[in-house]
Write a structure and sequence with these properties.
The chain is built from 3 helices and 3 strands, in the order E-E-H-E-H-H. The protein has 70 residues and is an alpha+beta fold.
C-alpha cells in the first residue's frame, strides 16, 4: 500500500508505504517505490517523502532519485 497526497499539479507527497507482514522481505516496498518513481518521471512530477522508508531510500541512493525529488 502506498498512500500519497497531491500538493500541486506537479508535486506528490508520499505519506506511507506499507507491505503486509506475510509479504515482508520480498522487496515489495521497493517495487512500489520503483513504480511511483517511474510514473513521476513519465509525468514530470516531483516527489517529497513523509514516509521513513521512502526517505531512507532517497538518502541511500540520491543519485538514483535526484531527478524526481522535490
Amino acid at each position: 500500500e502506498l498512500l500519497y497526497r497531491r500538493e500541486s499539479p506537479t508535486l506528490i507527497v508520499i505519506d506511507h508505504v506499507e507491505v503486509r507482514e506475510e509479504y515482508a522481505g520480498q522487496g515489495l516496498g521497493h517495487q512500489l517505490l520503483a513504480h511511483v518513481v517511474e510514473w513521476a518521471r513519465s509525468t514530470d512530477t516531483k516527489l517529497l517523502s513523509a514516509c521513513p522508508f521512502v526517505s531512507r531510500q532517497f538518502s541511500k541512493e540520491p543519485e538514483r532519485y535526484r531527478d524526481v525529488m522535490g
